[in-house]
Each structure stands twice: as structure tokens, then as C-alpha cells.
Amino acid sequence: MKPLFKFNNFVSAIILLLIGNFLLGASNIAMLPIWEGFDETAHFSYIQQVADNHKLPLDGKDPISTDIEKYYEYAPVPHALFSDVPSKDRLTYQSFFSKSGEFLSNSKEFIHSTGNPRKYFPGRVHNWESQHPPLYYILLSPIYSATNQLSWGKQIFILRIISYSFAWLGLVVAVFTCLEMAKNQSSSNKIYLWNWAAIGAGLWPVFFPAWFSDMARMGNDSICCLLLSLVWFVSIKMIRLEEVSFKHFLLLGFSLSLGCLTKVIFIPITVGVLSFWLFREWKLRGRIGFLKTTKLCSFVIVTILVSSGWWYWSNHVQYGVISGNIDLKLLKQSGGLWNGLETNFSFFQWVRSNAVLLVTFGWIGSWSLVKPPLIFLTPIIIILLLLVYAYLQTIRHSKIISSEWFPVWLVLPILIGLSYHILVRIALTGEGRGTPGFYLHILAAPMSAALGLSLHKIWGNNFLRTIIQILFGYIILFSIGTTWCQSLFFSGLISASKEERIYSFAEQLPPFFGLAEVYQRLHVLAYPNVGFFLLIIGWGVIVTGLIFTKKFAFQAT
Q1: What CA–CA distance (Å, rounded) separates 334 from 164?
Q2: Residue 5 lies in a domain
Q3: Burial 400-416 (b: 16+ CB within 10 A, else e)
């Protein structure tokens, strides 16, 4: 029997799903008003300061650029930034589109016409993203410089699409990793299993649309996703070897070092990776293997310290915490975690905030924080729990040191880290808000493999197969529906409730669900012609890829 990854249905499914995901990401970028991506103002200002001043921003000393403050004289403010903008200058999407035609025309010209090159000058608002290591911003700074003669709209589009390409390449690496694993299997069952894992990489953004909210924007998570994919690739190759070597630990150290120079979340990732290799070699080769691997892991740690230790040491000297995290700085100043929890701990808030991780992992929207009622998000939570159950059933007979278990070694340290951050937020404020689950999408490579393994398990059960297809169909409709609701919101045709930020519809929309009105209004803020075209083509490609996926699935059973 030929390996299944050479079959036309399989190859077609993978290619079409990957292309479709790129097109949907680009569509999201084209229709997303400037700064609606989470934390984009702070990320842009960091990039701008690195490019213009050739220095890293210092927390509390280098605020967000005046360019961004000027932007809000002409365009709406994402809800999350309302407190940063004087009330007289705040424009919601509804109040913006109620302005005169002359004002809207001037706004459109400001956003889409080539003006004077932008340059970093310190504004009023604290740049909270100065807490992050610099690699992402250094990599994006030449793109900023090369596009600085363009309009606001074109520059932000290019920065976003470059950023998204990093994350998308992470999915590509994930596919090749699983194909490499499948190619080296001796049994047809194992080949099928790892081809399912490869399919999972293509299906990941469709199953969990918060992927686009996190990755299709300016933000360092995109680089994290690519680097984590490289860690996954190197680790899988190492697992297949009879004996680990210095060369492979060198590659592992290089990838983890770049990760630690991108985001602090790579510290728990590093702990998970090295713990896996120490435990694996101890189980396989006993004390001798453990001691040898300890030396190799020590080399990885030294590599990380040499490449990024300077940044963490600088934080320790300046702020007393190595991570640079703002909440940890505030916690240290207020007396520490235990002192804060004694005063502010709430079991309800702890449970609620951990539940929010599940919801915001599946879908989160944009920085205006508007969303559908919770009941519409429930099926996403159900499908996530079903997939976790199927994955655990798949790996329960595998060795804990196997490649099938490796995603667990990566996910658990991050989940512990996020849960710790929830406790930090409770200690500071009495609430656990501010710890979204979409951070987990940096693990798309190993977790998408786990998704594929879960689907392989589910597909063999007629009842579960029916359930997963119904839920998956719902997610597709949900994604299309929320895309449209977001477009209506950005066009000022619907609003958000004051308390819960739920979509609030007028009694009657314009004809054809407001299509013509949305298209016309979004021209002021974004690129709806590009966005709608890519949206239609993207979903067409995705659906075609799903048809081939279904053919592959039935071939493989």
C-alpha cells in the first residue's frame, strides 16, 4: 500500500485548506479598521520607535506615538481604548458615521492618501507592550521603514499581512512535520494517523476562528507560532532517532532562544520541552541517558541566556522582575501575590476566568470587545471538550514519551502560566479579566496535530462522527455570521450593549442586510472590495478543501 499522503484527495485537501486559510486571514486584515486588532497601537508604536529612534521602548518612559493620537481625531476608537482618549475626542463607529459628509471625506483622505512620513514622537499614553522582548519589532521595523511613504491604510495592511504570513508559515511547517512523521511509519494505521494530524493543521483556523483575531493583526504571537512550529519540527525529528545528538539540541536551542527573545511565554514552553527530553531519556536509557541529556539541556539553557539573557537581566535590574510583565511589576509593588490573594481572592472569579480561557480560545472578535450572546459560543466550547476527550482516548495507550503525547508537554506549562496570571489579576483587582485563551494559538502546530488525531478517533465512531459534523457546520455558519456582524458594527449600523458588549441590532437594517451600506461605509476605514473578494474566494477554497477532506476521511476508514 502506498502512503496515503500521496493520494490526490489528501494532497488536494491540504493545499486547498492552507490556501483558504491564508485568503481568509487576508480578508480579515482588509476589512479590519486600523487598530481594531488587539493591542495594535502599542505594537505599532514599538515598531515605530525601533525603526525611527533605533532604541527599545522603556516601560513608563516611552509612551505611544503621537501619530496614533492624531489618528483618533479622524477615526473611531476601539472600545478598549476609551479610557486613553479624552471624551471630547472619542468617536464610536456610530457617532463617526453620523458626522457630516465633509468630515467623512477628510477622514477617508487622511487614512488612504499619501501624506507626510510618520515618525515616532512620545505621546501621552503608556506603551504597555514595552514589556515584551524585541525580536518581533526588530524584524518588522524594516517593513515599517519601507512603507512609511504610503498611506495609513496601506502601511497597516502590509504590516499585518507580513505578520500573518509568519503564523501561516507555522501551519505549513506543521503540515510538513506530520508528513515527515507519516513517511517514516511502518504500518498503514500509523500512516493514516499522522496524515490525519497533517489535515488537522489545515483545519485548525476553521475549527477555532479566534486564530484570525490573534494572528491576522500586528502582534508578536505570529512569530511565536512560527518558532513553536520549528520547535515541534525539530522535536519530532529527534523522537524518531535512536539517539539524540548535539546537532539537534543545537537547533532546538536556537529555536527556543529566538522564542525567548520574542515573548516571555517561551519560558514555560522551554520548561515543557526540556522536561520532556529529560524524562524521555531517563525512561529509555536510565541514568546514563539522563545525565547525557542533562548536559545537552544545559547547553540549550546557556544558548538562551547568551541570546536573550541580557533583556531579562535588564528587567530584573530596573523593575525587580525578570519577565517585564506589567502585572507582575504592580504585584511586587503592592506586596506580592499572597498578600493580594488574602485581600481579593474570589473562587467565583477564579472559575469564571478559567472558563473565559475556553471561550476566548475558540472566538474573541476584535478590540472593540463586541460579541454575540454566550449561548452562541456554547457549541464551540462543546466541540473543544469533545476534541480533548477524543485526543485523550487516542493517546491513552501510547507511551507518555511518544510523539503523540508531546503536545501535552507543551500545553500544560502554558496553561499553568495562564492560570497563574489569572491569580495575579485577581490579587491586583479582585477580577481575573485580561487573560484571554487566544494566546494558546501560538501552539497551533502541535495542537493542530492533536486535533487531527482527535478527528481520526472520532471518525471511526458513527455517532461521534455525526455530532462533530453538525458542530463543525455550526462553527462555519458562526464564523460567517460573526464576520458579517463585525462588518455591520464597523459600519455603525449596529451597536453594542453597554454592560455586556453584546451585538445590539436596530429594529430594521437597510435592504439586503445592509450589504450596500456596509460596502460604502467601510471604504472610509478599510478595503472592503479586497476583503469581500477574498472572503468569498477563501470560503470557496475552504469548502472545496473540506470536500476533499471528507473523501480522504472515508478512504482512510
Answers
A1: 38
A2: no
A3: ebebbbbbbbbbebbee
Residue recorded with cell 522551554: 270
Residue 274, domain member (yes or no)? yes
- The C-alpha cell that represents 435 in the structure block: 487573560
- Which tens digit of pLDDT belongs to each residue from 512-548? 778 889 999 999 999 999 999 999 999 999 999 999 9
Q: Is the pLDDT of residue 96 over 90?
A: yes
What's the rounded Cα separation, in Å, for the pair 303 and 273? 15
Range 97-112 average pLDDT:
94
Measured distance CA(72)–CA(92) in Å, rounded: 10
| Residue 43 three-state SS | helix
Q: Can you tell me the distance from the alpha carbon of 340 to that of 429, in angstroms, rounded to the nearest whole number?
A: 9
CA atoms within 13 A on the CB side of 302: 8
Handedness of CA 379, 380, 385, 386 (dihedral sign): positive
CA distances from 277 to 28, 236, 294, 473 (A): 39, 11, 9, 39
Q: Given 3-state DSSP classes, what are the helix, strand and coil percentages for the chain, each rounded to the nearest 5?
A: 75, 0, 25
pLDDT per residue as tens digits for the range 379-400: 999 999 999 999 999 999 889 9
Contact 198, 182 (CB under 8 A): yes
Q: At what angle do helices 266-319 and 406-429 cross, to 10 degrees?
A: 40
8 A C-beta contact, residue 120 and residue 45: yes
Answer whether residue 391 is part of any domain. yes
Domain of 336 in residue numbering reads as 15-33+158-556
Distance CA 168, CA 155 (A): 20
DSSP codes of every residue in 71-134: HTTTS---GGGGGGS-GGG---HHHHHTS-HHHHHHHHHHHHS--SPP---B-SS--GGGGS-S
Looking at the 3D structure of the chain, how many domains does it have?
A: 1
Are 41 and 68 contacting, i.e. CB atoms less than 8 angstroms apart? Answer: yes
**Could you give the angle at the alpha carbon of 406 between the alpha carbons of 240 and 195, nearest 5°?**
65
The beta strand positions in 159-290, using DSSP E, are none
DSSP state of 133: -
Helix (H), strand (E) at residue 503 = strand 503-504
pLDDT of residue 169 exceeding 80: yes
- Bridge partners, 504 (sequence order): 495
Could you tell me if residue 71 is inside a domain? no
DSSP-derived letter for residue 488 is: H
